[in-house]
């Protein structure tokens, strides 16, 4: 699944007792090496995020069809 602007990204921690990290997708960057995202994290920092398999969950800003 690919995130869209406005979606939220949730990154699960690899360490017990460390909380997950959440952020809002501000920009989708497509390139020859794949998709990256400019994300504003809960603490206000912005980074370019390159997800790896199994490390991230995307929460869509659009409600699920049903």
Description of the structure:
The chain has one domain. It has no helices and five strands. The protein has strands at 8-11, 21-31, 34-41, 46-49, 56-59. Strands 4-3-2-1-5 form a five-stranded antiparallel sheet, with no helix packed on it. The radius of gyration is 12 Å and the shape is globular. It starts with 7 loop residues before the first strand and ends in a 7-residue tail after the last strand. The model has no long low-confidence stretch (mean pLDDT 87).
What tags apply to this protein structure?
single chain; 66 residues; mainly beta; five-stranded antiparallel β-sheet; 5 strands; 0% helix; globular
Brief write-up:
Helices cover 0% and strands 47% of the residues.
| Average pLDDT | 87
Q: What is the count of β-strands?
A: 5
Shape call: globular
Alpha-beta content class:
mainly beta
SSE ordering: EEEEE
Give the biggest sheet: 5 strands, antiparallel
Radius of gyration: 12 Å
Task: Quote the distance from N terminus to C terminus.
Answer: 18 Å
Low-confidence runs? none
User: What level of helicity do the residues show?
Assistant: under 10%
Number of domains: 1
Helical region count? 0
Which percent range describes the beta-strand content? over 45%
Strand order of the largest sheet: 4-3-2-1-5
Topology:
Layout: E1 8-11, E2 21-31, E3 34-41, E4 46-49, E5 56-59
Antiparallel strand pairs: 1-2, 1-5, 2-3, 3-4
């Amino acid at each position: 699944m690919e995130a869209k602007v406005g979606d939220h990204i949730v990154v699960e921690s690899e360490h017990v007792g460390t909380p997950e990290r959440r952020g809002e997708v501000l920009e989708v960057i497509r390139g020859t090496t794949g998709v990256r995202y400019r994300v504003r994290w809960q603490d206000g920092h912005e980074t370019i995020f390159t997800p790896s398999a199994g490390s991230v969950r995307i929460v869509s800003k659009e409600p699920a069809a049903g």
